[in-house]
Design a protein that fits this description.
184 residues; alpha+beta; five-stranded mixed β-sheet; three-stranded antiparallel β-sheet; 3 helices; 20% helix
Length: 184
């Protein structure tokens, strides 16, 4: 009986390693969709023929940009094209006849990285960034980092979604990347 148990242990222990899958099969966070503005983004607003209005504006905590003449214009959750339409409508409402407005992103809001990296904190986002690039930006892994497990927290609508992702998963502005520590 004892030999049977030992035989089962020797046969099943190597197979247990096969059950580990370092790459997640599904993501709870969305990886596609148009970029939407939120607090911390800096946008360049260009109003044709109006040099005084054509400058950079920061999206404030309320999700608005404050322009001369019209005041706060809500842009949170909007694409740059939709934000341009909102600003055009605000300027056309008694201030400028037929305004032509373009909005583009000047500086993305930062992303955050925590956990087993050498320099955790807030970092400037670069378009097209992946988890691998984010970890490199934070100085790389610490000696105790679990290099197979990374979590991303991403705001989706009014909810905060969490997902285990691989190193080539895209990071977006406002994301929080968490690198886990290994136990041994």
């Amino acid at each position: 009986m004892r030999w049977l148990r030992l035989l089962l242990i020797f046969l099943l222990v190597p197979l247990a390693g096969c059950a580990l899958n370092a790459r997640p099969s599904t993501y709870l966070v969305q990886s596609k969709g148009p970029y939407t503005l939120d607090t911390g983004d800096i946008v360049r607003v260009s109003v044709y023929g109006e040099a005084e209005l054509s400058t950079t504006y920061r999206v404030d905590d309320g999700g608005s940009v404050s322009l001369p003449l019209v005041g706060a214009v809500p842009v949170r959750g909007l694409t740059t094209q939709m934000a341009a339409a909102n600003i055009t409508a605000a300027l056309a409402d008694g201030y400028i006849r037929e305004p032509s407005v373009a909005v583009q992103i000047d500086t993305y809001r930062p992303f955050f990285i925590q956990g087993a990296v050498k320099s955790a904190g807030q970092f400037a986002y670069v378009y097209g960034m992946t988890v691998r690039a984010a970890i490199s930006t934070a100085g790389g892994y610490t000696d105790t980092a679990d290099r197979t497990r990374v979590l991303i927290y991403r705001k989706q609508g009014k909810e905060m979604a969490r997902g285990t992702v691989d190193l080539d998963f895209p990071v977006y502005p406002g994301d929080t990347v968490v690198v886990s520590e290994r136990w041994f």
